[in-house]
Design goal:
Elements (H helix, E strand, L loop, with lengths): L7 H29 L22 H6 L8 H41 L5 H11 L4 H15 L5 H26 L2 H9 L4 H12 L1 H17 L2 H5 L9 H6 L9 H21 L1 H11 L4
């Protein structure tokens, strides 16, 4: 039975709700962009943020990217660390996403196609791991990493982010593999493929939308992760972008324009990726979220 089209006042209310949601999402980004090109004197101390650019300039972006000197010592130090933090974020996010895809996809295939003792318990444990708040593991993992001597390196961040993303990848891809007819894999094995060959040549190509969707979601999660990056790093050697952006909030002054410019630059990579692969995200989550 098809959905009935909205008419009369219901249609008006529906459109108003859609407009309100769109504005709620876009206005903060618009204000962030305005703040990044507006001088400090028009931002600091204002109860109501300015929504119209006054004396706009791209100085903050030039300072963030190292093309222009920052006047204040706090802002200069933060700008230098910001450029290094972008590299750190790319390394941590890319590595964690890659490892989560490998291990999570393999685990999802095992849960969907293989029979082994403890299969149901494994699925419940993986599902339960997504219910844990990040803060519950922060202190014990900090102590473990401290004894291992790997604090302030990429390793703690990669380990923690991979573990969280791997559970998400496993759950989504398990449902995705369940939807693919097992007879196609059986036909490939009859033709001479091994189980691994059938997995690589038949299942993975058919699961590309799901793989891309979980890859992007994992990358977005790691890119914006703040708690572990704050706890497990103490110098610019491994600090990621979200932590360094918070350092624009100085003890005696806030570098509003630099803060806004840093956020705009930091938000661009995941936004561009999401826009580029949005059709894969929708199809992957829609198909992977429903068991056939």
């Amino acid at each position: 039975m098809g959905a009935q089209p909205l008419t009369g006042w219901l249609k008006v209310v529906h459109r108003l709700i859609v407009v309100a949601v769109v504005l709620a999402v876009l206005v903060p980004f618009y204000w962030l962009g305005i703040m990044s090109v507006t001088p400090q004197r028009y931002i600091a101390g204002r109860a109501v943020p300015t929504m119209v650019p006054r004396e706009p300039s791209m100085i903050a972006y030039q300072q963030i990217l190292g093309l222009r000197e920052v006047e204040s010592p706090t802002g200069r130090s933060a700008a230098i660390m910001y450029r290094r933090s972008l590299i750190n974020s790319i390394v941590v996010a890319s590595t964690s996403t890659f490892l989560a895809l490998i291990f999570g996809t393999a685990a999802a295939y095992a849960l969907a196609r293989l029979k082994f003792p403890g299969k149901s318990a494994s699925y419940v444990l993986i599902l339960g791991s997504r219910l844990l708040a990040q803060v519950t593991l922060a202190v014990p993992m900090f102590m473990i990493f401290q004894r291992m001597g790997i604090l302030d390196t990429y390793l703690p961040l990669i380990i923690m982010n991979t573990s969280f993303c791997m559970a998400w990848v496993t759950l989504i891809m398990n449902n995705y593999f369940d939807m693919i007819d097992a007879e196609m894999e059986d036909a490939a094995r009859v033709d001479g493929c091994t189980r691994t060959g059938a997995f690589l040549r038949v299942l993975l190509p058919m699961a590309i939308p799901g793989i891309i969707s979980v890859m992007l979601i994992s990358f977005l999660f790691v890119w914006g992760e703040f708690l572990y990056a704050l706890l497990f790093t103490s110098t610019a050697a491994a600090r990621t972008m979200p932590v360094v952006v918070s350092m624009f909030l100085g003890q005696f002054a806030i570098e509003y324009r630099l803060l806004a410019a840093g956020l705009v630059v930091g938000v661009l990579p995941p936004v561009l990726l999401a826009l580029l692969f949005q059709r894969f995200i929708v199809s992957g989550l829609t198909q992977g979220g429903i068991k056939g």
